[in-house]
Specification:
Layout lengths: L1 E5 L6 H14 L4 E5 L2 E4 L2 E9 L5 E6 L7 E2 L2 E3 L1 H18 L2 E7 L7 H11 L4 E6 L4 H4 L4 E4 L8 H11 L7 E3 L2
Parallel strand pairs: 1-9, 1-10, 2-8, 8-9, 10-11
Antiparallel strand pairs: 2-4, 3-4, 4-5, 5-7, 6-7
Length: 180
């Protein structure tokens, strides 16, 4: 089952994912993948880390302080560091974990050809996958799974709804749009 979380910046997509991860771990499931939390300095976002959920290994996804690498907005992407952490985390997850979580599938991450290939491979697996999806990519991935639009009004209730969907399996069609 593939589950996608999307919405506007600041809607709580990554927070919902982290709550789902914590609930799944408490229930004894092995969860893998990676998260991309903000790097903040003096109250301002200066970049994003990439952290392996299992090992805790981390690297830099992007930073305003980098002078090299592809540019997305005000950030420069560190493809080498991203691939080192994210691809290793995903390789481990496909072999050893019950559920794979990816935060995020967006413009910066898709600059990596190796990551694009790994996503295609993962989407073909018979595992539960939860992906934070950039809203501009919804048309491309909407047929792969269930899309949840995260808003400030629904984000508090979404983790339990997603857990229920995972625990009950889906007797519905593989795809669908959920705006809860």
């Amino acid at each position: 089952m593939d589950i996608f979380l999307t919405g506007t910046p600041g809607s709580g997509k990554s927070t919902v994912l982290m709550k789902v991860i914590n609930i799944l771990k408490r229930r004894g499931l092995k969860v893998g993948g990676f998260i991309t939390p903000e790097i903040r300095s003096k109250g301002k976002r200066t970049g994003f880390k990439v952290i392996d959920i299992n090992s805790g290994d981390e690297g830099i996804l992007s930073s305003i302080n980098r002078e090299t690498g592809p540019q997305v907005g005000k950030y420069r992407v560190d493809l080498e560091d991203f691939e080192r952490v994210a691809l290793k985390a995903l390789d481990f997850s496909t072999k050893e974990c019950d559920i794979i979580c990816i935060d995020e599938l967006g413009t910066m991450e898709l600059l990596s050809q190796k990551f694009k290939e790994k996503i295609e491979e993962i989407l073909d697996l018979d595992k539960t996958i939860i992906i934070v999806l950039h809203r501009n990519l919804v048309p491309k991935y909407k047929n792969y799974g269930k899309i949840f639009y995260v808003t400030p009004n629904n984000r508090d209730g979404l983790p339990e709804k997603i857990i229920g969907l995972i625990e009950n399996g889906s007797t519905q069609s593989r795809t669908g749009l959920f705006a809860l």
